[in-house]
Design goal:
Blueprint (H helix, E strand, L loop, with lengths): L9 H6 L3 H7 L4 E5 L7 E7 L6 E6 L3 E2 L3 E5 L4 H15 L7 E5 L4 E5 L5 E2 H6 L7 H15 L7 H11 L3 H10 L13 H4 L3 H7 L2 H16 L3 E3 L8 E3 L4 E3 L6 E3 L2 H22 L2 H28 L13 H32 L5 H4 L4 H21 L6 H9 L3
Antiparallel strand pairs: 1-2, 2-3, 3-7, 4-5, 6-7, 8-10, 9-12, 10-11
Helix pairs in contact: 5-12, 11-12, 11-13, 11-15, 12-13, 13-15
The chain binds adenosine-5'-diphosphate (ADP), 5-S-methyl-5-thio-alpha-D-ribofuranose and magnesium ion.
Length: 408
């Protein structure tokens, strides 16, 4: 079928011709609602009129960037990568990925399970909800996805195949290169220029060559280092959650990149949420919980990643018997320590890009009181700068927490 942009009427007509979807809904009447709140795509909730709990999600890419409009063309092939990544991640850890009902590369469309008992994590965190299982879940997710798609597990040929499958996701990688690593740190038309204009803090950032040189090093790694298959945009808006379950959605930026990039994205978003509670709600107890969660996530990630490595002795990288056991333990400890260091660097860049860049986060950009927002931005920039300048020298998770706590 040729591509056609769907709307809330035509999406139902289209789905009515797909057997698996009709088997799900039976003879029920269907109604569609557009619920997308992301920057890129359209998301329809299709529900049964007779039993509204029965619902599916149909997500379609359009040939432009939704949040800007048709004047910003963006190839809809991004959905091909989202479909591939959802399938790949589902095969590694099915309980973290919504079930897929239908995919069409021609229509740039995926139909998946409706996560009706879950909410976007950013919203829950802003309301001060403590997700007690989150650190356990997300450390499992990140350690498994990174380990099982890396040269520490795959054979050399398999690793090259996964690179071939994902690293042609050129346009979305380029978006990140521009919108995460470059434009937010210089005068640029895509920035939030209302806030940049006459803002000494922005001018200071744009002239901060020490920060920018380090950010450039991290950008170079992003562009060249093919460690593992990444989600590529792992912020708290890509996580749907409740007290007992965690789902990761929206992997259209997936590509084989540096180990620390996804962990860094998550860390940045948890710290942005910490800043929101510092400045707006002043909820110290919740801030403590966030810090404890960051510690648990990073420590559990390290332990689980090393456990996977102990289970699997042969890989593209390692031939059994190559190192003696003492050297092997030391090598692995250093390896995983470097992943955490790198993730701190990426967290810094990811925090800083949210201040003046095109895509702000609600925790900071959404603060209506100008003085409070400026205060949040100042704290975020201070932490981001420390993260970016010092990431290679970070030796423990506690040092990361100290940087966050001392910035307020
Ligand atoms: P984009 O690619 O435009 O960022 P997302 O995949 O993030 O789109 O989806 C946008 C919104 O749609 C999410 O924030 C969430 O509210 C909703 N959504 C997406 N997938 C699901 C799902 N499987 N179940 C329930 N809601 C979903
Ligand atoms: C204009 S696209 C901006 C951002 O939205 C996505 O969620 C990614 O973070 C991207 O950088
Ligand atoms: Mg999204």
């Amino acid at each position: 079928m040729d591509y056609k942009k769907l709307d809330k009427t035509s999406v139902i007509e289209y789905l009515s011709n797909i057997k698996k979807i009709m088997a799900y809904f039976g003879s029920d009447d269907l109604v569609a609602q557009e619920i997308g709140d992301g920057n890129l795509n359209y998301v329809y909730k299709i529900s049964s009129v007779q039993n509204p709990q029965k619902a599916l999600i149909a997500k379609q890419a359009v040939p432009y960037l939704r949040c800007v409009g048709e004047e910003f063309p963006l190839s809809r092939e991004r959905m091909t990568y989202e479909i591939r990544a959802l399938q790949k991640f589902y095969n590694i850890l099915p309980s973290f990925i919504p079930n897929l009902y239908h995919t069409s590369e021609d229509m740039s469309l995926v139909v998946m399970e409706y996560l009706g008992n879950h909410i976007i994590m950013r919203k829950g965190l802003m309301e001060g909800v403590k997700y007690e299982k989150f650190s356990e879940h997300i450390s499992t997710y990140m350690s498994a996805m990174l380990f099982y798609t890396s040269s520490l597990y795959l054979k050399s040929s398999e690793k090259r195949a996964i690179i071939a499958e994902f690293n042609s996701n050129i346009e979305l990688c380029k978006l990140t290169e521009d919108l995460v690593f470059s434009f937010p740190f210089m005068e640029h038309e895509t920035n939030d220029n209302e806030n940049v204009k006459n803002n000494p803090q922005a001018q200071k950032l744009f002239k901060d060559m020490e920060f920018k040189e380090k950010a450039l090093e991290l950008k170079y790694r992003f562009m060249t280092q093919s460690d593992a298959l990444l989600h590529g945009d792992l912020h708290t808006g890509s996580i749907m959650i409740n007290e007992s379950q965690t789902y990761v959605i929206d992997p259209e930026f997936a590509f084989v990149g540096p180990f620390g990039f996804d962990i860094g994205a998550l860390l940045a978003n948890l710290v942005n949420n910490y800043i929101y509670h510092e400045v707006v709600t002043k909820d110290k107890d919740f801030q403590e919980w966030l810090l404890m969660s960051i510690k648990e996530i990073l420590e559990k990630f390290r332990d689980k990643f090393l456990d996977f490595w102990t289970e699997h002795k042969e890989s593209a990288l390692l031939v059994e018997g190559y190192l003696d056991s003492e050297t092997l333990v030391r090598y692995k400890e250093k390896f995983v320590k470097n992943i955490i260091k790198e993730s701190v660097g990426y967290a810094g860049v990811k925090m800083a890009r949210r201040i003046y860049g095109v895509a702000g986060v609600t925790e900071i950009r959404g603060i209506e009181d100008k003085e409070l927002r400026a205060e949040a931005e100042k704290i975020a920039l201070k932490i981001a700068r420390e993260f970016v300048i010092r990431y290679e020298k970070i030796n423990s998770v506690d040092e990361i927490l100290e940087i966050v706590k001392n910035a307020g």
